[in-house]
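Justification of resources, computational component.

The compute hours requested in this renewal are based largely on the per-chain cost of generating structure records like the one below. Each record pairs the submitted sequence with a full structure-token output. That output is archived, and it is also reused by downstream analysis tasks.
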Amino acid sequence: MQGGAGNSIIGNDSGASGSAVVDGAGSKWTMATSVLVVGRNQATGSLSITNGGQVTSGGGGNIGGHGTVMVDGAGSSWNAGDQFDAGTSTGTAMVNITHGGTVTANSSSLHQIGGVGSANVTVSDSGSSLTLPGTVQIGLGGAVVKVLNGAAFTSDSMGIGIGSAQVTVDGAGSTLNLTGGSSNGLVIDATVAGPATLSVQNGAR
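The structure output for this chain reads:
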């Protein structure tokens, strides 16, 4: 399926809901220049990419406070183009990348996990990855990020904190890769808004 001009929105207005499923190898949803919004204006939105399905949103990916994204299975992917933001409205955005699924952005932008709202992001299992070039700010509105069971999270640089933020990298083969490109590769900044923690444990690195 090819998207047209303008944003693509799953769940547009408060009290409404919407869902999209891209399932199976060869199944593709491509938006060359659009931002894909999952849960706008307090609406409930759900995006499931499974069993080798592929989504491309060249303008970016935006997950609101009532948005849920699942990317599950080898070959399943979301290329979020220019920018990836989770927790862009009040509530808690949920992102699960599992069993070899991947989420990537292309440009060295400022990406946010936990903005106006909070975000829970889990990347789990060997082959699963979240790759966000540029800088990732985690926890402005609160965030929990888990990298588990051999998964990987890669960015140039990362800020953890301002709001409550917890980042856990757990298990053999699990990796947090900060590749440089910023004068401050990692900043952990606890404030009165809440604690900021990074835990690397049980053979993770």
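DSSP finds no helices and 21 strands in the chain. The CA atoms of residues 67 and 113 lie 13 Å apart.
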